[in-house]
Amino acid sequence: MKPSAVAGDNDIFRWAVIGPGGIANHFAAALAAVPGARLAAVFARDAAKGQAYAAQWRREGEAPARVTTALPELLADASIDAVYIATPHSHHGECIRAALEAGKAVLCEKPLVTTRAEGQALVELARRQGVFLMEALRTRFLPAYDVAGRWLREGAIGELRAMQSSFCFAADYDPQHRLWNPALAGGALWDIGIYNLAVTRWVLQQMNGGICPEPVAMDVQAKMAPTGVDAAVNVTLHFPGGVTSQFRCGFDAASANAFEVLGSRAALRFPQGFSSAEVVELYAHRSRPKRVEAPFVLNGFEGEIAEAQACIRQGLVESARMPHAETLALLGWMDAIRARFPQAA
User: Which residues contact 26 (CB under 8 A, 6 or more apart)?
Assistant: First the structure.
């Protein structure tokens, strides 16, 4: 793909947002921290909602982003360099496909789609079209993960033994809300459990020269909501050498959402909110804990935006830091876990 923006930090890179909901507010805010990034267009099914979003994120001295309720119109705009997709999960696939077929680079919120088969088809389309496609998994670009990754690769924890994590929050049950609605691809695993799986894979990659082994077994327990989506999921993944990763994700409990890596010499820990960590700690036996603060530049979304812009300007179809193979592997693991649910969502 040949983007309209020319490489260089001071050049304008024009983003269009598809789906101006809550998560898209974090994206729009983070644009201010990425050189050249601008919100240029918005697609919303509700014109008033789109206009309010464009007005909210208008920069002083600049016109607000153009708003349209016609997706083909937005995708036909030659001035747009890339689209950011933040619709409900159920609509990711159709929006990605439309953008790729129109030659527009895509940064799409996690999960990219809800099955590996659909993800594979979209990856193949991106490659045929020569158009950039990346799943927006922000943990891969957080400064705290850079620190933790260095410690893991340097052998600070010794040999890897196990991982433990949680990602939970208490959400009121509303069958129409995207979290609980099967028509909107609701459910805890897709919405938040993907982070537990992604950090598990990331640690294994740091400890194994970039390679993540496949689980040899999975223990899965799921609590299903009346709508049929997963309200909470408990999983233990078993890997070669006796390494395990245990996690819980759910909409039915409060948690510090910590992540801990247990090693033969030390433990590494994101003490709270591991999906948006700004602190990492190292605990070694009979030693004082080592704590490093690694704050965001702005809100933690800027890293994935900067990565996407850099890749698109280089004419790449995927990011080396969040490649297509990683997205497909995550979808494969979620497929396998969901196959063990007591009933299909």
Answer: 299, 300, 301
Q: Which residues pair with 261 in a beta bridge?
A: 163, 268
- Positions of the chain with pLDDT lower than 70, given as ranges: 1-10, 343-345
- Put simply, whether the predicted model's pTM sits higher than 0.85 gets the answer yes
- Classified as helix, coil or strand, 134 is strand
- Say what the pLDDT of residue 343 is: 64
CATH number assigned to the domain covering 143-295: 3.30.360.10
Give tens-digit pLDDT for 145-170.
Answer: 999 999 999 999 999 999 999 999 99
Q: How many helices (H) and strands (E) does the chain have?
A: 10, 14
Contact predicate 194/214, CB 8 Å: no
Q: Shortest CA distance to 284 belongs to which of 301, 267, 264?
A: 267
Q: Looking at the domain covering 13-138, what would its CATH class be? A: alpha beta
Return the residue matching tokens 């129109």: 102
Cβ within 8 Å of residue 221, ≥6 positions away: 233, 234, 235
CB neighbour list of residue 122: distance below 8 Å, 6 or more residues apart: 93, 96, 97, 100, 112, 113, 133
Domain boundaries defined on the chain = 13-138, 143-295
Q: Residue 14 and residue 342: Cα distance in Å, rounded? A: 45
**pLDDT the model gives residue 211:** 97
Contact between 266 and 185 (Cβ < 8 Å): no
The answer to whether the 13-138 and 143-295 domains have the same CATH topology is no
